[in-house]
Automatic annotation (TrEMBL):
This is Sorbosone dehydrogenase family protein. InterPro entries: 6-blade_b-propeller_TolB-like, Glc/Sorbosone_DH, Quinoprot_gluc/sorb_DH_b-prop. Residues 1-24 form the signal peptide. It comes from the Bacteria. PANTHER family: LARGE, MULTIFUNCTIONAL SECRETED PROTEIN, LARGE, MULTIFUNCTIONAL SECRETED PROTEIN-RELATED. Keywords: Signal. It comes from Caenimonas sedimenti. Residues 218-335 form the Glucose/Sorbosone dehydrogenase domain. Pfam families: GSDH. Residues 23-50 are annotated as: Disordered.
Amino acid sequence: MHKFLIATTLVWLAAGCAQMPSSAPPTVSPVAGPVPAGAPAWQQGRDANQAASRLAPLPGKLTATPPAEIPVQNLKLPPGFRIELWSHGTPGGRAMARSDSGKIYIGTRGIGRVYEITDNGRERTSRVVVDKLNQPAVAFHNGALYVFAIDKVLRYDGIDRNPNAQPVDLTARFNLPPEQHHNWKYIRFGPDGKVYVPFGAPCNICIPGEPYAQIRRYDADGSNMEVVARGVRNTQGFDWHPVTRELWFTDHGRDWMGDDSPEDELNRMARPGQNFGFPYCHANGIADRDIRKDRACDGVTLPVAGMGPHAAAMGLHFYTGAMFPPEYRNAMFVARKGSWNRSKKFGYDVVMVSSDASGANARVTPFVTGFANADADTFWGRPVYFLQQADGSLLLSDEQVGAIYRISYAR
């Protein structure tokens, strides 16, 4: 039985609606539209025909969910695979990072916490490392936990062995831009030892200012910043191909262009400096309806594959373990949190993507389903990120119910 020491105050937050004031002058040119002054940012980009739409971001359940209310038995996987509840009680948990001693750290978005989970072989226990941050993400590197929020960067040296470790504040070194919309973080240290950080578009659709719609990399201390990708609206997950070491990432398509367009993207960065299209070109060569440019997709790196309309493609993981069958080696898993800007819900699952190392012949197939009921157009879970364990099993986080599942395979 899992024991968690987490406050369970009920907090409901409509994802994407919170906006923090900024002292900096505006750095974007938003699209004008029928959105009243003071309306939430997610309404930006609607046209007059959509002004009465009842579509809105779906609220996250940011309170601890008891195991009895998490219907893991509804989840379906290919034959031979098993999924089980590995931990619970971490509301809003998103991306995970593992320390050298095996502790797992989890960032959140709406709730502003970083959790630490300890597994003693019999049970998992949890504590809150830091609270009241602005959408923190985590990574572990050279014995230190890195925490990136919208407006803060903290490094906890040796925290997995010293729970009282005090953070080193690196915020000034990273010079973070202030806008909040699509600026929440997913961070990873790459094969080059540098930390990769996305800065999403501060809008649904706009001409972003220079700090936005890009992926940057830094030395671990915040020095030597480089912009490695531009035209990236909102990446929420990336990984490096195990053979080529090229960066692959998901990217969310804009809202309010219809139920089926544009699709979210799966992108491959063959070299630093590529442009992936935002705001002029979306998905597999679709010109934006509001921000127009002649030959909008010229020079744009098109995606390896579409990930479905408004699917909220999140974590991306190349599988390198030995537990799963050989056909899964170097294959990619993508968690799709699920749509809100669509009259019929889409996503709410995990898919496997198999392709050549160059991205050719990409094929997307279901891997974990059952988080949603298509007939009733309802959902209970929202899968978001992966962490591969030493034994080759996969951990999968569920932001909606604050749970982590373990996926294993038995021959």
